[in-house]
Amino acid sequence: MRALYFDRQLSLLPVYPLPPRKNGEALIKVQLAGICRTDEEILMGYRDFKGVLGHEFVGIVQDATNHSLIGKRVVGEINIGCGECPQCRKGIKEHCTSRSVIGIQGKDGCFADYVTLPEENLHVLPDEIGNDRAIFIEPLAAAFNIVTSIWVKPTDRVAIIGDGKLGILVSQVMRMNGAEVILLGKHKKKLSILEWMGISAFFFEGFDSSGVKIKSLKGAESHLERESFDVIVECSGSPGGFHVANTLIAPRGCLVLKSTIADKMDCDLTGIVVRELRVIGSRCGPFVPAIRALASGLIEVRPLLMARFPLEDWEEAFEMVRHPDSLKVAFEVND
After folding, report:
1. Strands lying side by side in the sheet with 106-107
2. pLDDT at 317
3. pTM
């Protein structure tokens, strides 16, 4: 099979071994696979990964221990636990100390013709969700993980830092219970999509003495006061996003960190203690509510898919991903 393989540099291998299917696993023929910000961070050294990249996919089960899965169109949770450690026994395999994560840690990913996953990781897709929407289930599940971890009240002021794919998904999830939600970003095309969705979106313009300078899409300048938001979700993918969030979070507020960044950064722990902040790391999340939200139309993803490429055009695909206005780019692996 073909595989997009990373070992200090990325290359397409035209002949790569078919992944062996263990008992309890399924062999899946990949149809569509999305490029994620984490894939880009891996190329810069995150997790020291070596192998086939990719973890967002939709595919058709070709073989499985449970024969009823064969022929089903599926998506898959990316964490594979040992099943025996304290974390796995608690049902949080994403924190298993010996876990593997497809395309990220210890297991080949989905930028290939085939991938294997434990059957318990798979979710059969309803007909209402086409492949173009299905590749958003994994990042949308990550967005839903926020509201499974904290209580966002309808009276809360919520700010999202970062106008990428995840920021747009998080914004939609965070407003579902009526909270006031705004997003700060830097790219007109992405902010325009948010405004089309009915979400208040502003350009981040820098800092001033009283807080953060912002500008509307129509050019009106204003500012956000320091320590004026109850909940902030940082998903900019850059160290600078944390500094914006740290400026705007109110005392006893909750700062949710979604970015996985290869670079190290400084953090003022004293300020966190003095303001009695809750700082929560958040990554993978529940697939079931993400699937339900897409099937029912509660979450809109149609404007987010920019382009599809065959695996052979991987260099062009990653070049598009790196463009500032880029959103979701996907590999059309098999028909």
Report:
1. 79-80, 100-102, 106-107
2. 96
3. 0.93
